[in-house]
Amino acid sequence: MTGTAPVPFTADDYKARMDRAARQAADAGLAGLLVAPGPDLVWLTGYAPPAVTERLTLLVLAADREPVLVVPTLEAPDAEKATGAPALALRDWTDGKDPYALAAALLDDRGRFGVSDNAWALHLLGLQQALPDTSYVSLTEALPMLRAVKDAAELERLAAAGAAADAAFEEIRNVRFSGRRESEVAADLAALLRRFGHSQVDFTIVASGPNGADPHHEAGDRRIERGDMVVLDFGGLRDGYGSDTSRTVHVGEPTEEERRVHDLVREAQEAGFRAVRPGAACQDVDRAARAVIADAGYGDHFIHRTGHGIGVTTHEPPYMIEGEERPLVPGMCFSVEPGVYLPGRFGVRIEDIVTVTEDGGRRLNDTERGMVMVD
Ligand code: ZN
Ligand code: ZN
Ligand code: ZN
After folding, report:
1. Confidence of residue 52 (pLDDT cuts 50, 70, 90)
2. Where in the sequence of the chain do the CATH 3.90.230.10 domains occur?
């Protein structure tokens, strides 16, 4: 089930994104956006340099002018092949020249620019030195919702990535867990994600027994035993868009308490999902899920936000967290992933990617949410 490849994005698609970004930047009072190689550049232009290096590559976007891509001469031929290139003016620079002077000539000193979060400090400091009166703000801080609302073509990719992750879960629940190391099951998961069409695996968490109580435990040498709860949380990119899902399985028959905590997290996940509708605040999703866990007396054991956005990366705005009052808008995609973590004992997390529709939420993951028993 690798599925058919989606219809590729066109130069017009990228041009529309660049226009929208430049307009939003101007509306936010910025002189422009400076975008380094990374997810923002891929989303805006389709260009991903083969390797991100100390050589400056920078997209300069401003509302009143044509987008310019500053690029090292040796990488210019690749950049010209990017789908979004027709809308870009390329300015290349050769080794030995000062790329910051070249970029500075395109910027307005005294201006305030939004900079992609992953731009190297080396480059930002270089620009600052060339233009001492400019100031900078992180792109995520200035325009947190720039990539948050997905169009139909993006939703199709995210749904396909979700279906592929679900297919991986359907396979992994049938493999042997007891007696194997977490790292071996994690390797199985990575292979399955690739088999179902992922080009990139970002994480394959296999957290067994007490390791499950650490939400950031990846996978280690621990041998999984009968009686363990095992948190599985895995995802990556398929056709450029992300998957991210969690299920918590049990090796053999669970205890009454394990069942109760699992049911509680499932109920919290359901409550978070039901809070998804246009106009609700992001924090309402967090509150709905958290209330279920707090009411059951486990509030201190739910130690992270309820969710994060997903798109060309597996973690991005919007965040489902207390204090995030921005409204949900149809087309947004994010995780709903409450958990309960009992130190030294076990953890449970259940996660689906959900997209906002006109009349509520639609899940992009749909495997069994009840307790699954494995061997
Ligand atoms: Zn157990
Ligand atoms: Zn996850
Ligand atoms: Zn997640």
Report:
1. confident
2. 152-374
